[in-house]
Amino acid sequence: MEVANRPQRESFSGYYDRPTYDALFRWIDIRKISVIRKAIAGLDPGARILDLGCGSGKILSRISRPDDTAIAGDIDLSLLQGARSRGATSIRVDFDGTLPFSDASLDAALIIDALEHTESPRRIIGELHRVLRPKGTLIVFTPPYDSHTWITAEKVHNTITRRRSDHISPFTRESLEYAVSRWFDRYRIGRVNLGLSMYAVAVK
Q1: Is a pLDDT exceeding 70 seen at residue 204?
Q2: Is the pLDDT confidence value at 38 over 60?
Q3: DSSP H or E segment with residue 90
Q4: CA 89 to mean position of chain CA atoms
Q5: Cα distance between residue 56 and residue 85, in whole Å
Q6: Fewer CB within 10 Å, N- or C-terminus of the chain?
Q7: Residue 114 C-beta-side C-alpha neighbours within 13 Å
Q8: Among 10, 99, 12, residue whose Cα is nearest residue 51
Q9: Which pLDDT tens digit goes with each residue over 51-71?
């Protein structure tokens, strides 16, 4: 899938294999994985779980159960290759286009630290609502831009990783709740990792 007339943005393909990623973010991912596992604990065996903006596929590989179908979605072919190596089915996806899934075809959808990188985050949440089955679960993680702790951490992160954050749609708690409540009646908003990670868990 080619995306025309859009400025070229820096690839994340080498980001997840850097030693600094493991050193800085392993403990952050542990808390995220805990939230996700609790959110999907009630899903029937053999659930279809999409990780949109899959990164390296490490989180998806750790939260999916043996009978589940783990689906990694991203536009970056190098990232998809990494997710495939961890057992996921990979699909190239344009975040700002229509998701290539049928209505009500997925049991859970994750979008972990990716929504803030997209041009139309509320439309994407609407697309994820479309592809989820009734009682399907959406889990969103995004940095909280109403947190002084996060703003300071972002500056440190950019210095250590030597790349900009590329957050073109930053969220506060209020804006995340607004985006999720547009499509979901049942949801909760929370924070983990000393307030560095904000999340929403919503049920269709």
Answers
A1: yes
A2: yes
A3: strand 89-92
A4: 16
A5: 10
A6: N
A7: 25
A8: 99
A9: 999 988 999 999 999 999 999
Place of tokens 């997925």: 106
Phi/psi at 202 (5° precision) = -130, 145
| Contact assessment for residue 19 and residue 83, using Cβ atoms and an 8 Å cutoff | no
Segment 107-162, tens digit of pLDDT: 999 999 999 999 999 999 999 999 999 999 999 999 999 998 888 888 887 777 67
CA 202 remoteness from chain centre:
14
| DSSP label at residue 68 | S
Please give the pLDDT value at position 95. Answer: 86
Structure tokens given for 106: 């997925």
Closest CA to 15 of 71, 66, 74: 74
With tokens 């030693």, the residue in question is 19
Question: How do the residues of the chain divide into helix, strand and coil, expressed in percent and rounded to 5?
Answer: 35, 25, 40
Estimate to the nearest angstrom the gap between the alpha carbon of 29 and the chain centroid: 12
Phi-psi region of 73 (alpha: psi -120 to 50; beta: other; left: phi over 0): beta
